[in-house]
Amino acid sequence: MITVVFQFLSTGPELNYTLGRHNGCVSMGRQHHRRSGARANRRAFTATSKGSDRSPDAAQDADLGSIFRLCARSLHASKCLNLRSPFTTHRQRYDPHAPLEPSSSKLLHNWVMPLATGLICRVVVTAALLIVCVVGILLYPEPLHGHHVDQGRLRLYSDRSFDADKGRALLNDVERRLQAAPVELRDPVSVYRIFVTNAEWRRRLVFLWVYLAGGVNYYPIAHSVFLRQGDVNTDRLFQTDGAPVAAPRTLSYFAAHEIGHSLIGKRTGAVANWRLPAWIREGMADYIAFGGDVDIPALTKELLEGHRELDPKRSGFYARYRLAVAYLLTRERWSVDKVFRTQQPSTEVEQRLVGASPQ
Ligand SMILES: [Zn+2]
Fold first, then answer.
1. Ligand 1 centre from 325 Cα, in Å?
2. How far, in Å, is the centroid of ligand 1 from the Cα of 353?
3. What residues have a C-beta under 5 A from ligand 1, the ion?
4. Among 210, 81, 43, which residue's Cα sits nearest to residue 138?
5. Using CA atoms, how far apart are residues 254 and 247, in angstroms rounded to an integer?
6. CA of 306 relative to ligand 1 center, distance in Å
7. Ligand 1: distance of its center to the CA of 347 in Å?
8. Which residues pair with 4 in a beta bridge?
9. Element of type H or E holding 169
């Protein structure tokens, strides 16, 4: 370490600043002393770095940054400065060509900005760690779901025990629905994992901001879908009040719906999938979940009669969107890609299907 005594004369008492250079960094301490007593300079750095200098002087402290930079500039010091004061410690980048700060901004540059930067850094690091943990759980949720069964390329996991044969039967039903998807969307190769999450604390971990949803798919993070409370043995998913969702929306339907979102995302790309209108994104996933089995005349009649199930906001179901997509695919013979590209609102499609339906 190289220690240099640097003397600064101000309008106040004479101050001694001691610069220490160590490992490419420069540290500075200060110590008040009598004008006539030029002693203890060698202890200045050590004393201040240990926080033993308790002689605060706000005006002098405000000048500290500029003094420090001046000292470091004169020493041709390194790129890293450790500035120590009786109150706090912070670190500054040293730019030998930078002008000295005007006095009006010294407080901001020397104290406010370092503190704010430190706070922002802590928040960013904490958020990054949190994101890493959440993504890790979403990628590898198996430890949270101790019971599982495989059937073909599908995997079924649950945090409650279930009958293995009924689990395989459920997976067969999911596979049947996926195989009936429009040919452009089929993906018979990829492995998909279905997680039925019953315990509330587990649901909060994997459902995140869509805690109340029946299912969730985080495509393209992983080939996994999560379903809320469900009983594999009875092939039923339960609502928030504990009542089972009525047929035909079984647990396998919900699983196929969520996997359908992955099939759509693979066809469109993740960004385009995210930007799809809800009636296309959810309508296509629901069309897949129902295995393409859509009774267009019956649903059109219910739409005209104002049935609750045909109102997604009231029912929480996507029958209305499924009807519009099914009409485009089967009656107007649109391709899947044309459906994804269309700018038409669902109301325009509904006007055509109502006009085409027999009165
Ligand atoms: Zn959906």
1. 14
2. 23
3. 282, 285
4. 210
5. 11
6. 22
7. 20
8. 19
9. helix 164-179
Specify whether the backbone of 7 is left (phi greater than 0), alpha (psi in -120 to 50) or beta.
Answer: beta
Q: Which residues contact 242 (CB under 8 A, 6 or more apart)?
A: 229
Q: How many Å lie between the centroid of ligand 1 and the Cα of residue 83?
A: 55
State the Cα angle at 27 between 26 and 32, rounded to 5°.
140
What gap in Å lies between CA 151 and CA 165, rounded to an integer?
10
pLDDT of residue 113: 81
Q: Tens of pLDDT along 190-238? A: 999 999 999 999 999 999 888 888 999 999 987 899 999 999 999 999 9
- Greatest Cα pair distance, the chain, in angstroms, is 108
Q: Give the distance (Å) from ligand 1 centre to CA of residue 98.
A: 55
- DSSP string covering 209-234: GGTTSSEEE-TTS-SEEEESSEETTT
The overall average pLDDT reported for the chain is 78
* Angle, vertex CA 86, rays to CA 6 and CA 111, nearest 5: 90
Domain 143-356 in CATH 1.10.390? The answer is yes
The helix, strand and coil proportions of the chain, stated in percent and rounded to the nearest 5, come to 50, 15, 35
- Amino acid identity, residue 184? E
Segments making up each domain of the chain, as ranges: 2-113, 143-356
Distance, CA 18 to ligand 1 centroid (Å)? Answer: 66
Distance 260 CA to ligand 1 centre (A): 8
What distance in angstroms lies between residue 287's CA and the mean position of ligand 1's atoms?
Answer: 11
Task: Please give the Cα distance from 298 to 277 (Å, whole number).
Answer: 24
Residues 6+ away with beta carbon under 8 Å from 302: 309, 310, 319
